[in-house]
């Protein structure tokens, strides 16, 4: 499988390689050169910084249907 280096230093990863590594657009990959001088590509697992927002699990979960006026009265302590 041959590919051509673009003017910006980019290459297209052949479909067979993408399929073998289960790569899709936006996948993170890491390149390395082994002792034999061969380039090795690895799929990078999502880093810890890409964890879902800690509030995401709670978002949209309230099952109490507040009216705005009632909620504001409660929050302001007016009763």
What does this structure look like?
The chain has helices at 15-21, 68-76, and strands at 29-33, 39-43. With 79 residues, the chain is an alpha+beta fold. The chain has a two-stranded antiparallel ribbon. The longest helix has 9 residues, at 68-76. It is rod-shaped, with a radius of gyration of 25 Å.
Structure summary:
This protein is α+β, with helices and mostly antiparallel strands.
Secondary structure: helix percent: 10-25%
Unreliable parts:
none
Q: For the record, give the distance between the C-alpha atoms at the N and C termini, rounded to a whole number.
A: 75 Å
Radius of gyration: 25 Å
Number of helices: 2
**Average pLDDT across residues?**
84
Percentage of residues in strands? 5-15%
The helix-strand sequence is HEEH
Structural class: alpha+beta
Biggest β-sheet strands, sense, barrel: 2 strands, antiparallel
Number of E-state strands: 2
Strand order, biggest sheet? Answer: 1-2
Query: Shape from CA axes?
Result: rod-shaped
Q: Could you list some keywords that capture this structure?
A:
alpha+beta, 79 residues, two-stranded antiparallel ribbon, single chain, rod-shaped, 2 strands
Layout: helices, strands, pairs:
Layout: H1 15-21, E1 29-33, E2 39-43, H2 68-76
Antiparallel strand pairs: 1-2
